[in-house]
Specification:
Radius of gyration: 19 Å
Oligomer: single chain
Structural class: alpha/beta
Largest sheet: 5 strands, parallel
Helix content: 25-40%
Distance between the termini: 20 Å
Number of strands: 9
Bound molecules: phosphoric acid mono(formamide)ester
Number of helices: 10
Order of helices and strands: HEHEHEHEHEHEEHEHHEH
């Protein structure tokens, strides 16, 4: 595989391969010195045109644990501010000798555009509301780990909130569907995309009605920064109808798992502290982010077996 730009590009076999490889990376991360020479001599550059805490730091950690060199591109102190084009930026960094770009950009399709300007591998770390494939791989791995089984056939996954602006939702729907899960989206009509008739999902506007049949409750961040116009009447009303609070946690099955990709909006979609949720996987998602991204970088850049 040359690039990882979307879950559909990875395909069912690719998803299975990365999740399997992640198990080996997770084992490395339990060692007292969690570092292997697998990507010695390779260089990975982080190119984030949008803010990030988890994805950026976990990719950097992953690259370092595989002994790759890392380069960090900070838009705010780069020549982008002097008018340098995206193409010139990519070609300039390519000239320095890099093997992979990890790219986040607010515009849909930028990872595909960039791959025409460089021979390096491209990893999509989020393009607009389109794709965030490594988050979906993290989430699939985390659910399989929590359940202690690989087959997710028949699992009821409920994704709640701002589906319209969510690349995490789009990637997760594809990935969990590949693994056999049944997916229900819960959102106000204004926060659902227009063209979801062909998506492999059921849709509800009533969170309370689906809690009792949910195996995995996946809360999404309300992305107020992407909302050009008011798509919810008020944050208070949104929280009341779609926020996760103590009462809703109590209405879940005792075995139900709760997830959130972060960053959380406390007081909006999260009205309860994750530590007060019995089966919260939110911290495991962050921890597993490093192992999954190690697996992705290894899969893209290594021609050898992991030793
Ligand atoms: N989940 C996620 O993509 O988080 P960051 O924006 O912090 O990378």
């Amino acid at each position: 595989m040359k690039h990882l730009r979307s879950i559909s590009e990875l395909g069912t076999d690719g998803v299975a391969r990365i999740l399997k490889l992640t198990e080996s990376m997770a084992e490395i991360n339990t060692r007292s010195v969690p570092k292997v020479p697998a990507l010695r001599g390779k260089t990975v550059v982080s190119l984030f045109f949008e803010d990030s805490t988890r994805t950026r730091l976990s990719f950097e950690t992953a690259a370092k644990r595989l002994s790759a060199e890392t380069m960090n591109f900070s838009v705010s102190i780069s020549s982008v501010n002097k008018g340098e084009s995206l193409r010139d930026t990519i070609e300039t960094i390519t000239d320095m000798g890099v093997d992979a770009f990890v790219v986040r950009h607010k515009s849909v399709g930028v990872p595909w555009q960039i791959s025409q300007w460089t021979n390096a591998s491209i990893v999509n770390a989020g393009d607009g509301a389109h794709q965030h494939p490594t988050q979906a791989l993290v989430d699939c791995f985390t659910v399989r780990e929590a359940l202690g089984k690989q087959d997710l056939t028949g699992l009821n996954l409920t994704i709640v909130g701002d589906i319209k602006h969510s690349r995490v939702a789009r990637s997760n729907i594809q990935a969990f569907h590949m693994l056999g899960a049944h997916i229900t989206l819960v959102a106000p009509p204004t926060l659902l995309p227009l063209n979801i008739d062909h998506w492999p999902v059921k849709v509800s506007n009533d969170l309370d009605a689906v809690l009792g049949s949910t195996d995995v409750l996946y809360m999404l961040r309300l992305q107020s920064e992407r909302m050009a116009q008011g798509l919810v009447p008020s944050l208070r009303e949104y929280s009341t109808r779609y926020g996760l609070d103590e009462r809703r946690v109590a209405a879940l099955r005792s075995s139900a798992l709760v997830m959130h990709p972060g960053p959380m909006n406390r007081g909006v979609e999260m009205l309860i502290d994750p530590s007060d949720i019995p089966n919260s996987l939110i911290h495991r998602q962050v921890t597993n982010g490093v192992s999954v991204r190690m697996a992705v970088l290894f899969d893209l850049l290594s021609a050898e077996e992991l030793s």
